[in-house]
Structure formats: C-alpha cells, structure tokens
Inverse folding.
C-alpha cells in the first residue's frame, strides 16, 4: 500500500540531498503510521497481541504468585516484562518482514523505486513507524498492568534509564532484522508461513511465555544466541524485584551481555539489509 504518485512527484528530478532525504523520510513516517493503524490484521497481530496475552495470563493466573518467599509478585507483574519485549519483536521484526514482503510482491516497491523516494527515506518511514507504535504499545501494556492489575512500577531513575536503552536498542534491532527477514519469503502469500513460525518459536524459548530458568540448559543456550532472550531479560531487570536476578543465568541481569548481543544482531541485520534489499527481487 502506498500513496498515489502525483504529477509533481513524477516530474520531480531525482535528488538525494540530505535535506530532501530527511523531508521525504519524515513524510513517509506519517504515511506509514496512518497505514499501519488502518490495517486491522496488523494492528491485532502485532500491536494488540501482547496486550491480549498479558490480559489472558493476568486473569488465568490471578490466584498465583511468582518469585521467592518474601518477594512474591502477581502474575501481571511477572508477565509484563516479557510482553513488552515480545512487542518489540512483533512490531519490529514480524510487522516489517510481512509488510515489506507484501509490498515487494504487489509491486509497491517497484513503483517506489521509480519515484524520488530514496531507500534511506523509505527506511526512515519504516523505522519511525516501528518506533512510534512500539512506544504506544509499551505505554499501553504498562498502563493496563498498573491501572487494572495494580502492578507497582519502578521508582528508581536508573531502572527507567535501563528501560530506555533496552527499548531503543531493541526496537531498532528488531526493525532492522525485520527488513532483512523480508527478503526470505518468495512471495507475499508465503510471507506469513515463513515469518510467523520463526517469531512464535523465539517467544516460547526466550522467557516470554515460559519461565526461562525452567527450560532445559541446551534450550537456554540456544535461545541465548538470539536477541529476544536478552531483551526479555533486560525488561525483567527493569520491572521485577532485584531478588529475581538469581533466577537468571549467572545469577545477575547481565546488562553488558544484553548490550553486546543486541548490538551484534543490529550489525548482522544491517549487513543483511545491505546485501538483500532491492526495490525489485533479482529472481523476480
């Protein structure tokens, strides 16, 4: 889905100066955000999906508590960090992988390639959309947990500083990986079958729905290769009591490893985008 091309656009000379690139990029952000919220399936399966699961787990396990004696918390408080992390993966990786694959399949990218829109402006639009929707989604999750389930939010500034860098690094990395992953499906029709199983498996092995320490050691090690495990752990360090750190591998929150692993995946994603992104598939 893309904006109609006006005569002015078609006649405009192709110029990719910094000012023009930024103007087109910011314009594209506004268009991408509007388009996103007009697509009911995208809104449900990426924006509202973590909210729905937080509600389900909070109600289903409302009589249960989690954590060591003396530091136990409710189910809503326990699942909140995982849902925030899962939202980054869904809004970034899943949403962009499906969206760009569909745009490539239906000819939208081919048409955009013939306009003054540069790839940088195009990616600004996509990344801006993911950032805005990610902030709205995280805010909605936190608000629901606090207002409807009485979850106590952190009061220490350093915890919110941790939230800020984990969130920004996570949403950027997941978005870039989504762009890279969009090259994998052979067509728009096959995109859902290719992308969603990958995203779903990562959620189940990364401590989003199942307590990470309850998984077999080999599965924990495998999940540790991917960024979602570290994003979920980073979010747990923000919202869970400090006593929960002993349940993590190594008995600490491991912020340094979270930063390193996520940055490595950001670099991997950038390389994939550079090697694979084309307005038109070479084999198409």
């Amino acid at each position: 889905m893309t904006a109609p091309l006006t005569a002015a656009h078609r006649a405009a000379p192709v110029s990719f100066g910094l000012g023009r690139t930024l103007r087109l990029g910011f314009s594209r952000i506004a268009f991408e955000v509007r388009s996103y919220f007009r697509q009911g399936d995208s809104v449900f399966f990426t924006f509202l999906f973590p909210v729905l699961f937080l509600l389900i787990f909070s109600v289903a396990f409302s009589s249960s508590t989690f954590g060591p004696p003396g530091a136990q918390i409710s189910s809503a408080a326990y699942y909140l960090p995982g849902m925030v992390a899962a939202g980054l993966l869904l809004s970034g990786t899943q949403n962009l992988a499906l969206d760009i694959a569909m745009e490539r399949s239906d000819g939208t990218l081919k048409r955009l390639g013939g306009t003054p829109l540069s790839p940088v402006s195009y990616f600004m639009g996509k990344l801006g959309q993911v950032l805005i929707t990610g902030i709205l989604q995280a805010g909605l999750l936190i608000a629901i947990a606090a207002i409807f389930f009485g979850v106590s939010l952190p009061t220490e500034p350093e915890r919110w500083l941790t939230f800020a860098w984990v969130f920004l690094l996570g949403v950027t990395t997941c978005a870039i990986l989504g762009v890279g992953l969009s090259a994998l499906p052979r067509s728009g029709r096959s995109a859902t079958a290719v992308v969603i199983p990958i995203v779903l498996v990562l959620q189940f092995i990364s401590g989003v729905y199942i307590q990470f320490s309850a998984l077999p050691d080999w599965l924990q090690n495998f999940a540790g290769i991917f960024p979602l495990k570290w994003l979920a752990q980073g979010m747990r360090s923000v919202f869970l009591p400090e006593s929960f750190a002993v349940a993590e591998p190594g008995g600490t929150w491991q912020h340094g490893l979270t930063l390193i692993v996520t940055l490595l995946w950001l670099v991997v994603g950038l390389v994939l985008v550079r090697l694979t992104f084309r307005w038109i598939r070479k084999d198409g």
